[in-house]
Amino acid sequence: MAQIDELRARAGGVCEICGAAGDLAAVEVPPSGEEALLCAICRGEAEAPSGHWRCLEGAMWSGVPAVQVLVHRRLSGMDEPWAREALEGMMLDAATLAWAETGKPLAGIEHRDANGALLAQGDTVVLIKDLQVKGAGFTAKRGTAVRGISLVTENAAQIEGRVEGQRIVILTEFVKKK
Questions:
Q1: Which structural domains are found in the chain, ordered by start?
Q2: Distances from the Cα of 39 to the Cαs of 15, 48, 154, in angstroms?
Q3: Using CA atoms, how far apart are residues 15 and 50, in angstroms rounded to an integer?
Q4: What is the pLDDT of residues 41-80, one digit of tens each?
Q5: Neighbours of 176 (CB within 10 A)
Q6: Is the entire prediction scored with pTM above 0.85?
């Protein structure tokens, strides 16, 4: 992991996606291990206010490949005309585009919640059952919202998300889309 001071210096002390100055943390961008400095909203740990993701239109021009990958992945998961237009306008080199597209579900794999609703990268889900989190020593309570989920690319029955500050794998049969 890069030193947080190096990330702060590179980012100018603000979120590398939206420019917010508060609650910043380093986020690893899989599978490379490179990092970006993000606020709680851009990390998916807080509810995004209306219009927040329009910041992606500016962040897509970042010279930092890790930020470009995060922007590409977020835009790919949005079903808004402006997001599709921004995604089409992104100029990524071949290596960065390949990196951005890793982590996307394999063709034919669909992640569905307990009710059969299709899940997408970045969705918010709610736990429908108390879940004992192995190795972390806590129980994720029913009704807990998990924001900004990630899809496990090779397994349609699993998603990843943050609960109580821990990144955990959750079975899709125990969540419903919010």
A1: 4-101 (no CATH), 125-177 (2.30.30)
A2: 5, 11, 29
A3: 18
A4: 998 888 889 899 999 999 999 999 999 999 999 998 888 8
A5: 15
A6: no
